[in-house]
Amino acid sequence: MDKNVEWYQQNRVEKTIQNLQKNNMEGYFVQDEKELIEKIEELVKDGDTVSVGGSMTLFEAGVMEHLRSSRYNFLDRYKEGLTKDDIKNIYRKSFCTDTYFMSTNALTENGELFNIDGNGNRVAALIYGPDQVIIVAGINKIVADLEEAESRVKNCAAPINAKRLNKNTPCTKVGYCVDCHSDDRICSHYVVTRRQNLGNKGRIKVIIVNKELGY
Ligand code: SF4
């Protein structure tokens, strides 16, 4: 990476981490997938019960593979052969896990998380339940503020996700959000996490990876 771009990114990440801390969340910066897994091993005890929210980032960064090793008691919603009821049970059990893994649709430099969810299980677990939530975010998820976060998600992440899921929505035709009323709409819950209460300080930990990951 160009040295000047590197300097710019570094400043941005430092500001984001400082503001996450002001909002009672932890922030870490790692350079690659190897450092990411080392950080996860530091934060999660062997034998702990863990689960995940839907995320391309977790697959791309090798986190899913790591969780599937026998190190943890992993409630794997993607396991082959699961019925709809099995998956529903995993969603519910996820609220009682030691650690819940997910990414975020956007992360602001002010230390806020912005997420859009269809079913709501992912944002529900982010808000309450698991003892710890580890968010893995590529550097591409950092935005200046909530306005940019919403624009990024509506006009980039959500249409791409709708396309990936083969949804019959206007955004899969035109490539941007038209706030549709489609039966296939994937955007039901718009959740901003501005802060954790003092009693939950450090429950949410954001690991920023110095790579482009997910949408
Ligand atoms: S609200 Fe509809 S059009 Fe907009 S991103 Fe979501 S699914 Fe696509």
Structure in words:
This protein is an alpha/beta fold and 215 residues long. It has one domain (3-143, 190-209): Rossmann fold (3-Layer(aba) Sandwich), CATH 3.40.50. 38% of the residues lie in helices and 20% in strands. The strands form two sheets. Strands 1-10-7-4-2-3 form a six-stranded parallel sheet, sandwiched between helices. It is globular, with a radius of gyration of 17 Å. The protein starts with a helix and ends in a 6-residue tail after the last strand. The relative contact order is 0.21. The mean pLDDT is 96. The site of iron/sulfur cluster has 15 residues, from helix 7.
Task: Describe the secondary structure blueprint for this structure.
Elements: H1 3-22, E1 26-30, H2 33-43, E2 49-52, H3 56-60, H4 63-67, E3 73-75, H5 84-93, E4 99-102, E5 106-108, E6 113-117, H6 121-127, E7 132-138, E8 142-143, H7 146-164, H8 171-174, E9 189-193, E10 204-209
Parallel strand pairs: 1-10, 2-3, 2-4, 4-7, 5-8, 7-10
Antiparallel strand pairs: 5-6, 6-9
Bound molecules: iron/sulfur cluster.
Iron/sulfur cluster is lined by residues 154, 158-159, 162, 169-171, 177-180, 182, 185-187.
Describe this protein with a few key phrases.
6-stranded parallel sheet; 10 strands; Rossmann fold; single chain; binds iron/sulfur cluster
Rg from Cα: 17 Å
Proportion of residues in helical segments: 25-40%
Question: Could you say which small molecules are bound to this protein?
Answer: iron/sulfur cluster
N-to-C span = 21 Å
Number of domains: 1
What is the CATH class name? Alpha Beta
Backbone shape? globular
- Total E-strand runs: 10
Q: What class, by secondary structure content?
A: alpha/beta
List the total number of helices.
8
Report the sheet-strand fraction.
15-25%
CATH architecture: 3-Layer(aba) Sandwich
